[in-house]
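[step 3/7] inverse_fold.run input=structure_tokens len=211
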């Protein structure tokens, strides 16, 4: 049976561009797909003066389509300003790849979401967000849905590890149903801090584990 992938997809899958991570990146994101449980991470280096993406890398824990899309969107985004890169969507990626099977749309959406979230992360860290909405419990929950529980490869909200969220005068308290000495406790803690600390009105994030 012939593979449902174009030659270009296969070429990017076999030789993906910009794979890896950027240590001390200016911004990064980790996105997971509820459709399949896969993950993609995107790292950016951005010129502070003109907001152009000078370097971009990605890591994919997804399928061939996801790897190929990660490869193509990082190529498309490199050298663009953040505003230009924001406009890259999965259709651009799919077109540049010579088409993707419809059943694989979510894989390219995942890669594009990763790029957008990394751009958002940069804007938050650098005070570039134009419309500043106050942080709500819903917003915190939305962000925590992007923190993975590595044991099962699903997020910590869906897997009910988050037991309580409270916001009080700039302090966000997140209670987790996870022992402090769990093998992934430190990694989950770091990811939660990365997701919440850049918020403009968050002064402190307190994470509580069970004893
Ligand atoms: Fe999960 Fe493609 S099936 S990213």
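[step 3/7] decode complete -> sequence:
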């Amino acid at each position: 049976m012939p593979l449902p992938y174009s030659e270009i997809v296969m070429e990017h899958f076999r030789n993906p561009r910009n794979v890896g991570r950027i240590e001390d990146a200016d911004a990064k994101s980790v996105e997971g797909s509820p459709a399949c449980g896969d993950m993609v991470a995107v790292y950016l280096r951005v010129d502070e003066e003109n907001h152009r993406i000078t370097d971009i890398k990605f890591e994919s824990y997804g399928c061939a389509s996801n790897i190929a899309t990660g490869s193509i969107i990082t190529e498309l985004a490199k050298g663009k300003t953040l505003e230009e890169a924001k406009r890259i969507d999965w259709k651009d990626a799919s077109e540049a790849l010579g088409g993707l099977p419809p059943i694989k749309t979510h894989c390219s959406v995942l890669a594009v979401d990763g790029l957008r979230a990394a751009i958002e992360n940069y804007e938050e860290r650098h005070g570039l967000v134009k419309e500043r909405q106050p942080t709500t419990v819903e917003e915190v929950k939305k962000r925590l849905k992007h923190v993975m529980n590595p044991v099962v490869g699903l997020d910590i909200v869906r897997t009910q590890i988050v037991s309580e969220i409270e916001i009080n005068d700039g302090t966000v308290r997140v209670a987790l149903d996870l022992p402090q000495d769990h093998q992934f406790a430190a990694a989950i803690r770091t990811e939660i801090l990365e997701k919440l600390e850049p918020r403009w009105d968050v002064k402190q994030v307190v994470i509580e584990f069970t004893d």
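[step 4/7] annotate
The mean pLDDT is 91.
The chain has two domains: 7-125, 137-210.
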